[in-house]
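testing teh design pipeline on a random one, pls ignore if ur not involved
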């Protein structure tokens, strides 16, 4: 496919500029809209409704009404809906990918992979839906019998970011629907169209009215977040985003003691030990760092390389980055790196580079904006001779920047890797089996990649520790976030 700022969809009905409430596509009652722009070209893609609080509450009421029926469906029935939804996503993979590239900016290949990844959560949870087993518990009281059962928690509020506009929805909604929960989804204002395309496919999959709702807002985003946290009908909130926003939402949820699962900021470490495979570490670093233009929460952000292999690693990595990454529009087949989401994101990358260079870091490749492409483009960058006092060690860059630091010992690098408040993902390369166990246990992160940096899949328990949040998504544990356990004690059971 050649470059075009406006893609042609095989199924044009997937591009929707209305919200989705109670099985209907609706405009804002006020008539207000907000614009959505292509981050590469800055051209207007379209509009989405600027809904008001009253309309959000209407969506919550619709989800509540739908939940009364949904909670009594069987896991097998919900599995069939999810399986059909999965099949429809795969059938429309190319169109869904085009929508992601258009509104998010990531190259089309990345977007195609996101769609396959996203659909996988519907497939995974279709298999989990019939298997929410309880336990039989022996009682110490003669004549008593105890057992547990699991039931859906209720209506869930889902708040998703722009960096994976399909994946962050399916990972949450798949688990919620498998459990028997209806949902109200608030997608990021930058990327509403992927969520609305999923609504089109939800209808085709036979998802009942009111079970899946998508509310859109830009100016009212904070108001909507507060309402989802404080509304008593909403029994669960799942949020992916920054740690500061997560803290606000957690505080707002305290009045109703909601069940929460938060996947928050990361500042992932990437460690190459002296006994690691340098070539494998270089090869793994490229997609891990630069997919999504470096804008993922599990992107390695701080690279620690043992002093004995530092020169080899940094030279090979910089050469590979310079060779493989060419920035451009995501629909241009020659592009291997798209734009950042907005100018503020570019400003942060630029600030981190300038701070590091002012403190004697060396630019090994890249290191500048690409104004000839547009204001949201920044070159794939590698910095050498990075030291602990530089801002990049304290702050997550969220952009196409690799800073490389030397370390001297295992104890030293573990302390430095753990020195941040967050703990989402970490990666390291070593051939020493004892070290692999030792370091994996010592690193204070929720997910550890050993000799790989591509860890995420539907079977993975995805989540962090420390200020990266709590709760798990995907995996056999993901459905548990939308269930409550009840214990039943039956008395008067006499032995024969």
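output:
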């Amino acid at each position: 496919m050649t470059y075009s700022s406006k893609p042609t969809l095989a199924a044009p009905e997937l591009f929707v500029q209305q919200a989705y409430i109670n099985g209907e596509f609706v405009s804002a009652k006020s008539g207000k809209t907000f614009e959505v722009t292509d981050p590469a070209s800055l051209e207007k893609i379209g509009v989405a409704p600027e809904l008001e609080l009253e309309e959000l509450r209407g969506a919550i009421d619709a989800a509540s009404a739908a939940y009364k029926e949904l909670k009594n469906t069987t896991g097998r029935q919900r599995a069939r809906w999810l399986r059909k939804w999965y099949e429809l996503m795969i059938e429309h993979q190319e169109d869904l990918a085009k929508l992601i590239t258009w509104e998010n900016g990531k190259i089309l290949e990345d977007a195609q992979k996101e769609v396959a990844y996203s659909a996988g959560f519907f497939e995974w949870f279709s298999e989990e839906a019939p298997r929410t087993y309880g336990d039989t518990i022996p009682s110490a009281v003669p004549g008593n019998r105890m057992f547990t059962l699991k039931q859906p928690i209720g209506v869930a509020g889902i708040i998703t970011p722009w960096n994976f506009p399909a994946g962050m929805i399916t990972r949450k909604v798949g688990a919620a629907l498998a459990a028997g929960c209806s949902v109200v989804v608030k997608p990021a204002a930058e990327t509403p169209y992927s969520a609305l395309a999923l609504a089109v496919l939800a209808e085709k999959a036979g998802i009942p009215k009111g079970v899946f709702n998508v509310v859109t807002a830009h100016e009212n985003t904070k108001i909507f977040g507060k309402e989802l946290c404080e509304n008593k009908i909403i029994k669960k909130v799942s949020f992916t985003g920054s740690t500061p926003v997560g803290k606000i939402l957690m505080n707002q949820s305290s009045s109703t003691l909601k069940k929460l699962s938060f996947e928050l900021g990361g500042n992932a470490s990437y460690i190459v030990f002296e006994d690691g495979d340098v070539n494998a570490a270089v090869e793994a670093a490229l997609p891990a760092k630069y997919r999504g233009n470096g804008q993922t929460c599990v992107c390695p952000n701080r690279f620690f390389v043992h002093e004995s292999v530092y020169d080899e690693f940094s030279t090979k990595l910089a050469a590979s980055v310079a060779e493989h990454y060419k920035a451009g529009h995501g629909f241009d087949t020659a592009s291997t790196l798209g734009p950042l989401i907005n100018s503020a994101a570019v400003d942060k990358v630029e600030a981190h580079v300038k701070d590091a260079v002012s403190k004697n870091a060396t630019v090994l490749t890249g290191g500048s904006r690409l104004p000839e492409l547009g204001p949201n483009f920044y070159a794939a960058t590698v910095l050498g001779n990075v030291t602990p006092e530089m801002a990049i060690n304290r702050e997550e860059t969220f952009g196409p920047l690799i800073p490389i630091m030397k370390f001297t010992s295992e104890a030293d690098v573990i302390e430095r890797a753990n020195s941040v408040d967050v703990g989402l993902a970490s990666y390291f390369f070593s051939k020493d089996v004892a070290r692999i166990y030792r370091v994996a246990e010592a690193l204070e992160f929720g997910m550890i990649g050993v000799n790989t940096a591509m860890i995420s899949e539907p079977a993975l328990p995805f989540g962090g520790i420390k200020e990266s949040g709590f709760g798990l998504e995907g995996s056999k544990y993901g459905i548990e976030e939308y269930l409550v356990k009840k214990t039943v004690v039956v008395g008067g059971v006499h032995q024969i």
